[in-house]
Amino acid sequence: MRILLVEPRTPDTFWTLRRALRFVRRRAANPPLGLLTVAGMLPRQWSCRLVDLNCDTLRDEDILWADRVLVSAMQIHRDAVAEVVRRCHALGRTVMGGGPLFVAEPAGPDDNAGVDHVVVGEAEELAAALAADLEAGRPAPCYVAPRFPDLALTPAPRWDLLDLSRYATMSVQSCRGCPFDCEFCDVVALNGRRPRHKPPERFIAELERLRTLGWRGPVFVVDDNFVGDRRRCRELLEAMIAWRRRTRPRITFLTEASVDMAAQPDLLELMVAAGFKKVFLGLETPSTASLRECHKLQNLRGDLTGAVRTIQAAGLEVMGGFIVGFDSDEPDIFERQFEFIQRSGVVTAMVGLLQAMPRSRLHARLAAEGRLRGEAGGDNTRATLNFEPRLDRDFLLENYRALMRRLYEPGNYYQRIGTFLAGHRLRGPRPHVGWRDIGAIFGSMWVIGVVSRGRRAYWRFLARTLVRHPRQIGVAVTLAIMGHHYRAVAAGL
């Protein structure tokens, strides 16, 4: 069979980094790992093509070539999927959808974005029956995963379908699931509370494949919580360290984790030795009442500022997720968020409005309280709400926009980088620096240092960094380039 895999275009968001990618001449931040993994589940004698609409355009010839079109999507892709479906239907092709966007029992006409067939849940244990039905020409309207599968069943991604040079970062996955059950999060519903791991040798084989394909940049380990099972995490890190010693790869890593990792100094040491440079933490809020409300109890076990500094001192840059709009938030929450972010030196601070995601416990609670107002859009930095908040709605939206603009105002942003650099130990393997990176440095000097607003603050920042932290000038310039994108996102709210 001929299978066309389509990744819908992601609207411009905080994490697309499109304005920053122009400096390094990349088209997208990350590849469509879900579709690449699904492609690995299909019979190898089938012909597969991948069209990532973040990099390419979808041509009529691609649609007409295919026997079946498969699309993977999250909430944020709803409109983009509907457009793909419209085009496929116009050319006589049906569409099968998988991913968090799709549900088994649609509640309304807009659910599932018009696709003809859906796969709900993880596809490992469905793949054989699905392939047989596709080949027989009788796919069912809906396939539902019977359980959370063993990740030993997960095949390696089909990297051969991808042009690696178009992406800034590669993506791999070592585990799914998170032991915590934060009220606003849908991970437990999607992937379960018991972290499920790939065997370390399988994960190392995926890294080795990327290395042999010539990848020399960062790799995002897209786990729900990399440290969710500490014993298994340590086993994996030991295997990664052994692989690094054998092969000397020019690859570094970033991932997502919970802030309680700060209490495990040996784990931090292993992560740095394995090549990790960054970690995204759900810090959420400095309000203890709001943390209790959303059941983010792991963030109440110590001082959050101290935890961030511990992780940074170990050699990892902390990227943080923050939320405003909890029922327990007081009107001063915006000032408290700003002060916490500046004081802790979390340079990449994604502050979002609380969203009630469809499968979360928050969604169920607000529905029971009669407070839902539509569905979540999937981008909590769009200054929209899908529920009735306790704080005045207009007050919340206005102050949210003001907070984002204040955080990414050049002087405040560069001050935050300085705070981070002062507490950060530069350790572990050095990132690969290529011609694109050198070009990005000179390009940023022109765009940020000459053309853009805030150019004086930029040059003062570079001068201070060269005097105080000369060994970290590369880190500083990278963060300045990312800030160029974040500032534009904040300005557009």
Question: Your description of this structure?
Answer:
The protein is an alpha/beta fold and about 500 residues long. Among the domains are: about 140 residues, Rossmann fold (3-Layer(aba) Sandwich), CATH 3.40.50; about 90 residues, 2-Layer Sandwich (Transcription Regulator spoIIAA); about 55 residues. It is about 40% helix and about 15% strand. The protein contains 18 helices and 14 strands. The strands form 3 sheets. Strands 2-1-3-4-5-6 form a 6-stranded parallel beta sheet, sandwiched between helices. Helix 12 packs parallel to helix 14, helix 16 crosses helix 18 and helix 17 packs antiparallel against helix 18. The longest helix has 19 residues.
Put the structure in a nutshell.
This protein has 493 residues and is α/β, with parallel strands linked by helices. It has helices spanning 18-24, 33-41, 60-65, 78-90, 127-136, 187-191, 200-212, 230-247, 265-274, 288-293, 304-314, 333-344, 361-368, 393-407, 410-423, 435-451, 455-468, 473-491, and strands at residues 2-7, 47-52, 68-72, 95-98, 117-120, 142-144, 170-172, 175-176, 196-197, 218-221, 252-257, 276-284, 317-324, 349-353.
